[in-house]
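Issue: copy button drops trailing tokens. Both records pasted manually instead:
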Amino acid sequence: MLREDAGSSSRAPAQGRVKQFSLLILLALHGSAHAAVTVYGIGGVQNPTGSQSGSLPVSTLGSTEWTSALGAWNDIQLQAPPLPVPLPPTAFTVALANQAEHVTNLSIPQRGDFYGFSIEMSVVEQVSNSFIQVPFLNLLATVADRAGSVRVRVGGNSQETATLVGSLPNNSMIEKAASAVVSNSRTYPKCELLSTAQAQIPALIFTDELLYLLNNVSHLVSAKWYLGIPMNDTSHLRLQIAEQADAILGDNVLGYQVGNEPDLYATHGSRPPTYGVQDYFNEFGTVVDGLKSDQKITEASTKLVAPSFQGKWKAEDLWATGYLNAYAPAIKTISFEHYADNNCAAEFPDGGFGAIKNPQDVFPEYLTHANGQKMVAPYLNSAALAQQFNKEFMMFETNSASCGGFPGVSDSFGSALWAVDYGLQLAYSNFTGAMLHIGGSNVTYNVSPPTNISLFQKFTVGPTMYSTLFMAEALGKTNTSRVVDLTTNEFTPVYGIYEHDTLARVALVNFMTEQNGVGSYQATISIGGGLTGEPNATPASVKVKFTFGPRFQVDGRLIGQEIIKEIPCDQTANTCTIPVPAPGAALVFLSSDAQNNADSVVTQTYSTTSVTNRLATATLFPSAIAQSNGHRGADFPLSGTSQGGETTAKNLPPASLQQTVFIIWARAMMVFG
């Protein structure tokens, strides 16, 4: 859900509550070349320094019991944190050199598809077997159109127990094997601590239809995939997924993850309590040798993704074993998995996770530049090693909080801002990508939690989906963008982005929420000139655009109308002043090329009319993609994987919900609708 301020604290007028997420888009004009600014903010930012919020459409919901019963659509609203003391400057100058050669600490060149998505293998059937789910396809298309491609990981915990077979009854693509269930002390996705509660990871049986499905998606949108090779039993390797994927998907597979969070194997009972980094080193070598000796494998043996530690083991302990030297030819991507926090105590009160964290208390921790810096700090040494070994370096699974996220935090506009700053900080720190995890109907951090609200099944769009598009446009399609962190205050992050070694874009974030007319800021950008020894390069004017759109009526396409407001710049003074709402984020395009390299052209979208009659059409429950992290017993259907979670069909939103809740979004003058 998207909120009307960073803390989701405001209430709409008496006629109904409104969840809002706003868009300001600024286009800068420079002679015949057009520059542009995109500002992402909240409802009412048309008057960023006043106390009166803008006029917004208001509507009422129909039956909304599900919005409070299910985490993905909860109605929890938190109070926005108070303004910092002392208050950061609300007007400051950002002076930038126009050429990369005059800039220190620039990142390595980054891809536009930096942010991708992580989906649990056990529920990938949600993307469909008979029908490719159109909303998901459209969401992928919106990213690929801006970034040039989109990366999706299919795997996770359930990949460890997966087996490819020739066929399944009733032409099924995936089944959970009731006779082969792995007992496991882990209770839910990515809990940082060991729980005493019991969970089960079902053994999965799947056919090559899964691989053909992924290949079909790749032909419709420029989607590339990461798959997982089982490592639960290295005495009896199961390499069929690599054999078949090499043949069916070919170059559409970017990599094969070997071992999902092996540092938690012993904790979860799948290895002896003494299992350590040297044991993992040896087992990984067994898999590498098996791949190399398998004559049916043509590419997988040099595309491995590892070690994917969750954080219990230190990477430096593994590097000390000679791991990278020993397996460098096999490893394509060095990977880790980490969430900003965990909400495991609330999800499992008797699980031994300590005191329950109050979302209101933790919310301010997300609204600061220090959060992203803290998250990347443990990996900076490994990032440098990745460059030395010429390897990609990815945060292979991440989001705001494990164990379902924090209601009111993970699904707030503040979360979108957090993900923007976090993503840019990862890029600046020389990560080469990050996979945002898609959880379930009892998970609040979703990129796109599914829902039924019509004769066809739809998705809702979470705040981090918009962060993904922001990142795609910030980095563009050329795959040459280099990022520098110019932040001087933790509440007002600033990044410069150089493309082809020339300044192309500037990203501005405002973590503050306006209170009594205070909180928004003005950043005066100066390009070249001054002490840089370069000619002035500030555009002549900027234009601001606004848009509206519905929250739940989503099939993954962008819709909306734009309203444009022009803001002049001062080329004589070589300055352009960009207002950034509180809270909000702005993306400033400094040339027509910079804008063209990030802009959508005409996104190919896909109709939902192929599934029109709910009673006559066999469909899959959207919650299948939802609470998925491989942790559910085989006695549960494929639509859920988390033990004890409420994700069956009866928990889904009503099929004919009559409502329109308006949000306000960002960038391309459109929202998802």
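Record 2 (pasted manually too):
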Amino acid sequence: HFLSTLRIGELRYRVGETTSYMSVLWGFAEVTPQKVTILAEIAEKADDIDVERAQAAVAQAEQRLEVGGLPSEVEEAKVSLEKARLRKKIAERAQGISQT
């Protein structure tokens, strides 16, 4: 059995024959032969993410990155963009929208 840290990423899980997706933002995963336990700071089911809001967040994060600023502001903008892109990808997958 092992413990791992989680960063910004996609969680795919199955219940019976149904595969579902979530965005996960930081946390821990504990894996044992019997189960996997996820403790995430933030987790959103794909069906709960609004595609239009996610697209707007991507555009806003890209603009913030273009503006630049202090190194800490640039790093924050990069993280915001990574989170926004993940949420958009997962929301689109849930709605069957082709991803580019």
